[in-house]
Backbone:
């Protein structure tokens, strides 16, 4: 009953969508479950096409994988339905009856809150306001909306029964460890726990069933909005290094800093991963772009991976070398076995 949880190691934007889509194509999971909400965007590029997803699981690229939205997730119905059409997944994407629904009033409430928008740097998607309603037990859930009737299922039962049958389930986490409401750089955080334990609680599976936790780091650190960013570079230096990025949801420029071992160690302590993934490795070492075999990586790039893995005491098994989902050096067989 293999259950793989994919978690962001820094402040979001680590490339979880790329990793999850790769797992969808290569590991062929029976089910992929998305947690979190629409304030986090996951980018998937495959076969010359690109999708910026806010709620549909990134495993959608495997047409045989069933896609599910966790009961702990929150989403807007129009965003969900639009992505269903964009990904052509109608008939294989399902929503738990208890998934929370963000309404226009939640968005308006959040965007009118000067503290959230200007001080905290909220994305203004209504997620926090909807979470408040959930805590107060007044939030409407998926079962309350006729337009979702054809998508409703018991995700908790579906996932647990698939695991009992021995099927592979991938759980796609949201944002990053240091945006966790409890373990992040409070108050500059999101409105939920984004660590591995928080992610699986949103799905409704026991920690005893988790077989792998893949913690995703980018080869450098980025952050959108306010809050601490150790080692932050000037915008001129970010441009010089070719690390200019914008947030998938908001389009805001991402602040950037070099890879941070101290942050990575704390993320490892909080998530206890079995494996690490490194993405955007081609931004650090342009010579690796598009490579898919370890032996084809330049010596200095291989040395970086080995030194970081040794420093963190966790094997780096997946190395993203380009935009396409399949631009990945996969060391899992060599490092952790078949």
Residues:
């Amino acid at each position: 009953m293999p259950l793989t949880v994919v978690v962001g190691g820094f402040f979001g934007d680590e490339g979880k969508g790329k990793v999850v889509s790769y797992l969808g194509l290569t590991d062929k999971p029976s089910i992929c479950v998305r947690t979190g909400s629409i304030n986090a965007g996951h980018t998937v590029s495959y076969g010359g096409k690109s999708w910026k997803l806010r709620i549909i699981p990134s495993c959608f690229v495997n047409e045989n994988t069933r896609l599910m939205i966790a009961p702990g997730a929150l989403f807007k119905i129009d965003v969900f339905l639009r992505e269903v059409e964009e990904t052509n997944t109608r008939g294989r994407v399902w929503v738990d009856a208890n998934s929370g629904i963000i309404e226009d009033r939640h968005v308006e409430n959040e965007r009118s809150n000067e503290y959230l928008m200007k001080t905290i740097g909220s994305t203004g998607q209504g997620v926090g306001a909807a979470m408040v309603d959930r805590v107060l037990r007044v939030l409407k859930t998926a079962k309350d909306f006729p337009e979702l009737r054809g998508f409703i299922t018991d995700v908790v039962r579906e996932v647990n029964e698939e695991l009992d049958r021995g099927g592979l389930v991938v759980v796609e986490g949201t944002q990053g460890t240091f945006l966790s409401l409890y373990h992040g750089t409070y108050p500059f955080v999101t409105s939920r726990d984004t660590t591995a334990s928080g992610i699986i609680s949103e799905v409704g599976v026991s920690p005893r069933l988790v077989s792998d936790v893949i913690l995703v780091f980018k080869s450098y650190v980025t952050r959108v909005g306010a809050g601490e960013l150790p080692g932050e570079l000037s915008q001129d230096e970010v441009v010089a290094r070719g690390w200019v990025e914008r947030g998938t949801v908001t389009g805001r420029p991402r602040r950037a800093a070099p890879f941070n071992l101290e942050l990575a160690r704390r993320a490892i302590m909080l998530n206890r991963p079995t494996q690490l993934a490194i993405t955007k490795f081609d931004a650090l070492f342009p010579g690796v772009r598009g490579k898919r075999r370890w032996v084809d990586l330049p010596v200095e790039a291989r040395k970086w991976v080995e030194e970081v893995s040794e420093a963190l005491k966790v094997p780096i098994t997946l190395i993203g070398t380009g935009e396409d989902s399949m631009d990945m050096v996969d060391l899992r067989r060599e490092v952790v076995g078949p």
